[in-house]
# Entry
Amino acid sequence: MTIRRQYSLPNCNLVLDGLSDGNSSTGIPDSRPLMSSLFNVECHFVGSEQPLFGGRDFLTSLVATVSNYAQEFLSGIPHPPQPQQPNSLVSLVKGDRENTHHLTARIDANTNQPGETESIATSKPTEINLSTVQLFDLLEAIDQFLADKRTLPDIMIPLQPISKAIAQPISAQAVPAGLGLASLVVASLICHALPAPQVLAPKSINSAPVTTPTTPKPNTSPAAQDPAKPANNPQPSSSPTSSPSSSLPTKTGTITEATQIGFLERKLHRDLDQNWQERGQIKQAANFLVKVNQDGQIVNYQVSGKTNPSQSKLTPLPQLSTQSADPNQAIGNFNVVFNPTGVVEISPTADLQGNMSFGKLITEPKLKITLAEQLKTTLQKSLTSPKPIHSQNLNYRVAVTKTGEIADYAPTDRRAADYEAKTPLPKLAKFNSQAAISEEPLAQHNVVFRSNGEIVVTPK
# Structure
């Protein structure tokens, strides 16, 4: 039986195609079939039209190379140079610019078709410059794969300890801490010399309890280190753009539930992508911190990093922002980058709780089949032309409610994202934010618009 497993992140999509030998004895209760062999691997990055692909050797090389490079990048401890292995298909080194990473992948000769050996041997390796955010999305996709015990459980991460001779001396590591302590002492002396602030009683009595605002926890995620992405804490010199509200609503807290954040991220990306009329006029990446409410509406936004506030006029943010200051709404915070290439990149700023998914699944077999047939009929009737949308298959994940309403959908690769507007999905989708909030079970499907014009709907 052919099996496809996908590990999707905002900037990276890892796809594995393999087979099951019918043996499901892994010791872990799971209704999914066990993928015991692999025949195809694809790795797609947002902003890159050229995917990486190969077979099992490519996957093992990718896992080993990325894991080893990430250890060195996170720890700051240089690893000893490893001798180049003849079967190593992937290499990863620091790029020419700060926070860029140069990934090179050679085609796996074991995946070629008969008669193609010579052309593959002479073909040039695929080279991609990854941002730090893309690197860590790739690392997260690999982690998800390694944690999935129903997919190639014999492949493991090759972690190796670093010897004491290679590791940085503890005295050198202690220098930044000592400097930080000295700064703290100086700051405390300055604060001690300042007069105590005078506390004034409120002019009007309010029976509601007074809550003391807490200091926001600084974001130390890898995404905050990438200048290609918006900074989580905008520079003090960056003032809010055309939105008049200077105090952005955060009183009821930040939305951190992974499934709800995923829903809001997809809706925000679609709204911005469809309404970006000035595409191509931005000459350098424009970074923004964007706040979205539970219904997916843009509440407010700020420029981030070194972005010129006037850049906002070249984006759809001013027209889509509601400029709402309702203190009773929960807020999802996102980094948004408008790139000169015309690609919109979005990533959440908060540490997410739980696993990102399309939500709970409808499990009733008859209802699943009925909704799948209904979805296929609806899509076929909504096609504006009998001609195929594209010369290659376009794959999407689509979730519908019990009444058959499309509540959410997402392309599974870059090609599907590029041709999304030519499918009936944008017109049919009524993004149901309440389904994401209440965790309403949804019927989830793999939808393929085939190159021959046929639509295939497979319930999950």
